[in-house]
Amino acid sequence: MSHKIALNFEDGVTRFIDANPGETVADAAYRQGVNIPLDCRDGACGACKCFAEAGRYDLGDNYIEDALSQDEAGQGYVLTCQMRAESDCVVRVPASSQVCKTQLAAFEAAIAEVRKLSESTIALSLKGESLSRLAFLPGQYVNLRVPGSEQTRAYSFSSLPKDGEVSFLIRNVPGGLMSSFLTGLAKAGDSLTMTGPLGSFYLREIKRPLLLLAGGTGLAPFTAMLEKIAEEGSAHPLHLIYGVTHDHDLVELDRLEAFAARIPNFTFSACVASPDSQYPQKGYVTQHIEPRHLNDGEVDVYLCGPPPMVEAVSRFIREQGIAPANFYYEKFAASA
Asked: For residue 194, what are the contacts with CB-CB under 8 A and spacing of at least 6?
């Protein structure tokens, strides 16, 4: 059985390849037209050294210490000319996609549904035969081209691919190019082009408790992550805090409730910043982070929201005198 390998390049591009049983990752990449760094192919030079972020693999014992030390191998570094996958894997490549002579994949899809979840949030579903080839890491995004223009907008997937269909949460920006199209012109069957996947904000292997912090439509990557976690389970507790500005910005709470029912150790809370809110929990996300959520630093923090939120959370964590084991974040801003 072949295994799927996600190659993450330093410019944010992700390319998926299939590795056959017994085939090295380097050979699989070259067979599929991806020229990752490589020289000797014998485990002697270290030119193909990468970092395996997830998955099981075998490195054998044919490489030399100068190419890959025991300490490096213990940390997760690999030589792709020796690495043979034993499961699906995620490999970080210390080179740009351009240098490796690969490029973004393009997919044609049709609008399946446009739903206005609130006056500030739109749910967009796309479907198409080409999407059966689509693969991405939960949390990543694509660029959607706005019909009738050459401009694109970046949106995180809010679901995993299923039956050739994917979905997005899109902020309804007054006067926004994509927002105007979706609210005024879009209809089922209209064609859209997406390129990607992109981004270094994605779910890693869960090795400790997670604290997930979402601001507004920054909830999207987390619902995709939670779908993955619901499928595979987690031995560690997960807590999501979802913050918005106004009551009408709160969406998908029923979906979060469904995740809480499916994932035994998942909990979540939501809060609204506006002083005029009627929602029980008010204030900013930082006001609802409790010491137990930070677990004395033995926690991986994932944060997706506008720049002021990212800066506020970073400052709050520093003020607690705690350094999380890992802190992954993605900033976004609406385009006019």
From this structure: 106, 107, 109, 126, 142, 143, 144, 145
